[in-house]
Amino acid sequence: MRKCSLDSINSVFAEISKAASLYLPVDGTDGAATYTKWEEGLTWSNALNTVKSPKDFFFPQTEDLMEFKTSGKNIEVIDTRSEMEDFVVFGVRACDVKSFEVLDRVFIKEPVDSYYASKRQHGTIVAVACGRPAETCFCQTFGINPAEPAGDVSIWKTETEVFFRANTEKGEALMSKLSGLTEECGEETVNAQKEKIAAIMNKLPLKDLTTDGFGGGKTKELFDAPEWDELSQACLGCGTCTFVCPTCQCYDIKDFNTGNGVIRYRCWDSCMYSEFTKMAHGNNRLTQKERFRQRFMHKLVYYPENNDGLFSCVGCGRCLSKCPISMNIVKVMKKIGGKASE
Amino acid sequence: MNNMEDTLIPKIGVITDVRIDTPDIKTFRVVTPDGKKAFDHRPGQCAMLSVPGVGEAMFSITSSPTNEEYMEFSIKKCGCVTEWLHQAEVGQQITIRGPYGNPFPVDDVFAGKNLLFIAGGVGLAPLRSVINYCRHYRDRYGEIDIVYGSRSKDDLLDYKEIIEEWSNDAGVKVHLTIDNPQEGWDGHVGFVPNYVKELGFDTNKTAVLCGPPIMIKFTLEGLCAMGFDKTQIYTTLELRMKCGVGKCGRCNVGAKYVCKDGPVFRCDELDELPDEY
Amino acid sequence: MQTITRDQLLDKAVSLLADGTVTAVLGWSKGEFDYDVTPAVFKTEAELKENFVWNDFCGANFSKYLVAKMDRLEGKMLVFLKPCDTYSFNQLLTEHRFDREKVYAVGIPCEGMVDIAKVKAICGEGISSVDCGGDKLLVTTLYEEQPVEVATAEVLAERCVNCKSKKHVAYDELLGEEGEVIDSNRFDEVEKLEAMTPDERFAFWQNELSRCIRCNACRDACPACTCEKCVFDNPNSGVENKAPANSFEEKMFHIIRAYHVAGRCTDCGECSRVCPQNIPLHLLNRKFIKDMNEFYGEYQAGAEVGSRAPLVDYTTEDLEPGEVFDRRDTNA
User: Fold this and answer.
1) Are residues C101 and C132 in the same domain?
2) Does C231 touch chain A (CB under 8 A)?
3) Which of A100, A286, B163, B179 is the most buried (most CB within 10 A)?
4) How far off is chain C from A105, nearest CA to CA, in Å?
5) Domain assignment present for C200
6) Touching B: which chains, 3+ CB pairs < 8 A?
7) How far is C266 from C292, CA to CA, in rounded Å?
8) Nearest alpha-carbon partner for B147 in B108, B119, B182
C-alpha cells in the first residue's frame, strides 16, 4: 500500500495526465458532480457520486459505429473505428465498478462488441472507498463492500491523505508512474477507515433490503404479480432511471444522414419508452405497466438467470434520487420480493 | 485501427434478382459484390439487411442452405426498410450481416421424422428454407405434408415453386387454401387452422408453424386437440431487433433474446416465457 | 411547513369516498424516506390511512395524470390541487384533455415545496429523516449527532421562491384560505439572460443543455405536453432520437418543446423539478411568457378556462413582426 497527502493529489493527477487522459468527478455549475477531463485548476469533487454513471466511458450515450458512402446503386462501408488511447477513470465508487462486470457480461460475451471491448482494454479504473455513504445506498444488498472497491487501483481518502493499492497489472503500471509522488505505508489508517465504513453501513436505512424472492427462474412467480399495477401507475414513461443507471445496457442503432454520407450510430435506449418494442406490424408491450415490469424483471430475474445469479443492479441509488415521481427498484423489491418470500 | 471483427459492421450485398411474388411480397436474391454467398446459414436463421440512411431490419433467409450460389429473402412491404427495398432494382447494393438466431433442428430432432409444415401468408418465407433443405436431403426424412394458406391465390408465396416442384416430389403432399372463394381457384377455401382440422393429421409427425400470431394460436390449439404434444411443434417468433446478437435488449422476453435464442422455439418452451411476444 | 395538515386532507378524502362523491383519490403516497413521495391513486380508506402523505415534498403536479388516469374509472376522482396546479388544470380543460365531470377538485393552500437537493447541499448526504415544522426543517443525518436546522425559505424549490400565485383558479371545494396572485420576481432570471450578449447567452445554454441526457422527463412530466404521440417518439418523423446525433440536436429538442408549449405553458416548473441534470428548463418557457406579455399584453395561461392564448388569437392591436425585430434591436 502507498499513500500521498491529499494536498499533493493534484500532482498525482498531473502525473497520470502525462501518459493518459484522466477523468474524475468535478463539481459543475449546477453543483452536481460530473466526470470531467482533468486539467490544471480542476478539483476532485467531494460528492458521493456523479449523476451520470461512468458507464459512459465504455458504453457512451451516443457512439458512431461506422459510415456509409453511397453513389448510384453502390454502397461503401467505412470502418471508422480507431485505436483507443489509454485513459484513466479516477474516483469510481464500488457500486459503479461492479456495474462494469454487469456490462462486461453483455458486451464481452461472444460475439464480442469491439467498441466496448477496446474501451475496456484501454481504460484503467481507480476506485475509491465511500467514506460517507448516503441514505439511498444499498450496494450491500448486492454483496458489494464500499470499503473494498475493486478496480485496477483501490484508493481510500481521509481528511489529509490518499491511500493506494494496485489490484491488477494495469493498476501496477499506473502506480509505478506514481512512485515518486507516493510513499510505502502500512494499512492501519485504511483498516480504521474500513471499520468506520462498516459501522455506517450498519446504520443505513436500506441495509436490510434483500434480493430474496428474486433471481433466475422466478419469471412465472413474479410476472403476473398484481403489485405491478400499483407500482407502475404513476410512471411517466421517461427514461431517467434507465439513463442514470450504471447497468442499463439497452441500445438503439440509428442512421444519421449528414448530407455527405450516412453515419450509423448507437445510443442508449430505454425499455420504458413507448416505441422501444414497436415494429411495423405491432407492439408487444402496449402499456406502461408492461414496460415498467420489463425493466425490473430484467434486472432482478432475467439477467441473473442468464448470468450465474448476478443481479443487474448495484445499489448505487441514482434512480432513488432522480426518478421524477420517486418510484424505484427499492420500492419494487420491497413490494414484490417481500410478497414472494411470504 | 481497431482490427477486431465486429458483427455490427455489415458486408455489402448486391441484389441480383427481384421476383414479384404477390401484390405486397417480393423475393430478393442477394450475393456479395464478387458473386458469392455472403455467409453460410442453417434453415430458419436470419440476416440483418439494411439500407444506409433508411434503417436495418431482421429478415428470415428464405433460401435453403443447400443453395450454394445465393441467398433469397421474401419480404413483405410493411415498414420503412421494406418499402425502400420494394423499390430497389437489380444491381442495387444493400448491407447484410448474419447469420443470426438458432435454426430448426433439421439434423437431429427432425431426422427420420414425418414433417408437417403449416404456414400462413408471408409465414412461408422462413419455412421455405427448411422445406427445401428437407427436400434436398429427402431420404433423411419421412413423409412431408405442407399446409399453406393465404388471403387469395395471388397472395400465395412461391406458388410456381410449390406447384412445379414441391407438389411433384415423392412423399411430399401440398395442401393449399385461400381465405375466400376466387374465380379460377378450384382448391380449398378456408382459414388455415380450420383446414388443418379438416385434414386431421396423424400425430406421428413433427409440426412446424409459421404465420400471423392469430393463425399460430388457433392452429396450435387445433393440433393439441388432435393429440399433438407441444414438444412436437415448432414455431418462430418475431420481435423488434436492432443488434441481432442478444445485447441491445429489444427482443428480450423473459430470460430469452428472440434474435439469439430464437427465432425458432419449441412450443413447450414458449409456455415458459411470459406472455408478451 | 404547510398551513393545512395531512389529517385535514385525509379527513376530506375519507369523507368524500364514504359519501360516494368520489371513487378514487389522486394523492401522494409515502416513500422510503420522508422526501420521496410518489403520486398514487387511492381507492379505500385503509389505503389512504396507511400511505397518504402531505408534507413539504409534495411537489408533483397532478393535473397531467387526469389525462390518463380516468379512462377506466367509474365515478369521480378526487384530486388535490395546489394553487399552481390549478393553472395546469384549467389549461388542460381549455384543451379538452380530460372530462371535468369526472373530477372533484379540492383546492389546497401551499406554502411552497422543498427541493431536497438544496437540503442535501446544506446537510450533506445521508439524510435519515426530515421533520417539517414551523418555518424550518429538522434534518437528521447519519453523520451528525444532532438534527440540523434548516430554514425552509433557504431550501424552497426555485418555482416556489418565485411563486406566481397563491390563488386557486379552479376547484369544486377549497380547503383553507384563498390566496392572491403574487407580483413575483420570476422574470428576474430571464432579464439576466436578456442582458447577456448573444455569445454569452449561447455559452450559457450550451453549458446547460450539453448535460441533457434525453431522458424526456421534462416532456413526460409537462402538463402542456399531452400529445398522444409526440413527434420525438415517432420513428417516421426524422427527429425521433434518443440521443443527440450531433451537438446541436439536444438544443433542438428543447427549443422545439419550448415553442410547442409557448402560450400554453403555465410556468408550473415541473420541467426543471424533474430534470435529473438540473437544467433550468423553465427559463426557456419563462422567456417566451415574458416576451408574449410584452408583445401582446399580460397573459397567464390557465388563469381561466377557454381563454385564447396570444399566439392563437388575433387582434388589430397585435404587433407586426417587424416591430418585434426593431424592439429587440433597441434592447440589445
Assistant:
1) no
2) no
3) A100
4) 24
5) yes
6) A
7) 13
8) B119
Both B121 and B232 in one domain: the answer is: yes
CB atoms within 10 A of CB B185: 16
Range of the domain at B23: 11-100
CA A231 to chain centre: 24
Q: With both helix axes pointing from N to C terminus, report the angle between A169-177 and A9-19 in degrees, rounded to the nearest 10.
A: 110
Contact B93 A305 (CB under 8 A): no
Residue B258 lies in a domain: no
pLDDT band at A342 (very low <50, low <70, confident <90, very high): very low
ipTM of model over 0.90: yes
Number of domains in chain B: 2
Q: Where are the extended beta strands (E) located within chain C?
A: 24-29, 38-42, 52-53, 77-81, 103-107, 127-133, 136-141, 148-151, 173-174
Q: Closest to B249 (Cβ–Cβ): which among A79, A112, A249?
A: A249
Q: Give pLDDT tens digits for B141-183.
A: 999 999 999 999 999 998 889 999 999 998 999 999 999 999 9
CB within 8 Å: C142 and A242: no
Give the separation between CA C271 and CA C217, rounded to whole angstroms. Answer: 7
Contact A279 B238 (CB under 8 A): yes
- For residue range C197-208, list pLDDT tens digits in order: 999 999 999 889
Q: Are residues C84 and C132 in the same domain?
A: no
DSSP per residue over C262-273, as a string? TTT-----HHHH
A1-26 confidence digits (pLDDT tens): 999 999 999 999 999 999 999 999 99
Place of cell 411552497: C112
**Domain, as residue range, for C16:** 6-113+158-174
